[in-house]
Amino acid sequence: MTASREAILETVSAYVRLVADGTTDELMDLFAEGATVEDPIGSEVRTTRAAIREFYATLEGLEQTAELSVVKIADGQAAFLFELVTHIGETAYTIAPIDVMTFNEDGKITSMRAFWSDADAHIGSKSA
Amino acid sequence: MTASREAILETVSAYVRLVADGTTDELMDLFAEGATVEDPIGSEVRTTRAAIREFYATLEGLEQTAELSVVKIADGQAAFLFELVTHIGETAYTIAPIDVMTFNEDGKITSMRAFWSDADAHIGSKSA
C-alpha cells in the first residue's frame, strides 16, 4: 500500500518546518527504519540512523526560516521545492533545493535525495 | 566522467522547448541509448527507444507552450520544475511537473522520471 497524498503532504510540510526550527529528535521521527539520505546528490548516502541524525544535528540551534514552494506527489513519492534561509550574524545564506522522497505506507520517509549545488546558493545581507 | 553543469542545463532547456514545439525526432536526439522514461511516477517505465518514441509522438502537433521555472543540478543529475500548457480549442490544460533526470558524460538523458499527478493539473479557459 502506498501512502496517501494527504499523509505525504503532511510529512513534507512537517519536514520543511522542522528543518528550519525543529529538534533533531522531531526530524528523526519523520524517517522510517532503514531510511537513506543523500544530501546533496553525489555525496555519500547516509544509510544508518546515526549517520542521518549526525546530518540533521548540524542544523539544530541555527537561526533558520524555511518555506515550501511547490510539491508534486505521485505513487507514494514526492518531489518538492523549498527555500531554507540560515541567518548568521548579519548574513543570510539561502539555498532552495528540490528534494525527492519516497515514503512507506505510514507516510514516513524511506529515502531523501536533495538536488542543489553551491552554484544555486545565495549569500546576502540581512536587509536583502 | 559526469556531464558538466552547462551541458546538463543545455539539454534540460532544449527538452522543455522541444516538449512544447519540437518534433519527436528532435526530442529523441536528447536521449542516450538505453535511456528510460517514467512519466508520471508510478506508470510503467519505458525502457526501449520505440516505447519512448511512442510517448513523445503523442505530443507532436499539439499546440503547446512550455516554460522552465527552476533547475537544480548536482553530480550529473538534475531536478527541474517547468510548466506545460496545452491549448485545445478554447481550453488550456496546464501541468507543472518536477522532472528528475540523469545524464551520460555527453549530456544525453539516461533516465527521466516525472513527478506530477492529476491533482496538480489545471484546466482553464484561454482567457484565464
From TrEMBL, chains A, B:
Record-annotated SnoaL-like domain positions: 12-111
Domain of life: Bacteria
Pfam families hit by this protein: SnoaL_2
Gene3D superfamilies on file: 3.10.450.50
SUPFAM superfamilies reported for this sequence: NTF2-like
Name of the protein in its database record: SnoaL-like domain-containing protein
